[in-house]
Amino acid sequence: MTQQPSPRFERGTDGPKVIVVGVDGSDSSLRAAAYAAGLARRQGALLAAVYVRPVMAAGVALGAPVADATQEIAEDLAAQIRDAAERLRGLSDIRWRFHTFRGDPYNGLVKAADDLKADAVVVGASERAGHRLVGSVAIRLVKAGRWPVTVVP
């Protein structure tokens, strides 16, 4: 009988390479970003912070400057992430990138995770009461079953 070689595991080479975190400026999304940053630091993974710019057809039809507002939110979130990374400089070497996608939050995060070849997705729990009936982005991501999803309260 021939003995099968046992699988060889190397310390520090397993685990996620890209962690996607959805950010929208809410308290829960910022907690999710902090949690994901800790994961990325410990795993040596790239942290991809993703803001999904909503497409609001009704606002555009009424002449509201929706594109300007969502661009300002994206720039503000990127600045917050840069500031946090700057404060941590020297304490940790977190590799991160900020990405924006257009669309609804669920489809935007799915596209981001696919395009970035994510190994894990982290999102904040919904702060809206209506999501208990319709379903939140987090629940939809979990049900998709395509990546490990962590929902941060």
Number of domains: 1
- Residue windows where pLDDT falls under 50 for at least 5 positions: 130-134
Mean pLDDT: 78
Radius of gyration: 18 Å
How would you describe this structure to a colleague?
Keywords: Coiled coil. InterPro entries: Rossmann-like_a/b/a_fold (IPR014729), Universal_stress_UspA (IPR006015), UspA (IPR006016). It comes from Streptomyces griseomycini. This is Nucleotide-binding universal stress UspA family protein. This protein is an alpha/beta fold and 153 residues long. It has six helices and five strands. It has a five-stranded parallel sheet with strand order 3-2-1-4-5, with helices on both faces. Helix 1 links the parallel strand 1 (18-22) and strand 2. The longest helix is centred in the middle third of the chain and has 23 residues, at 66-88. The protein starts with 17 loop residues before the first strand and ends with a strand.
Set down the secondary structure blueprint.
Blueprint: E1 18-22, H1 27-43, E2 46-53, H2 57-61, H3 66-88, E3 95-102, H4 105-115, E4 120-124, H5 131-134, H6 137-144, E5 149-152
Parallel strand pairs: 1-2, 1-4, 2-3, 4-5
Protein name: Nucleotide-binding universal stress UspA family protein
Coiled coil: 67-94
Domain UspA: 17-153
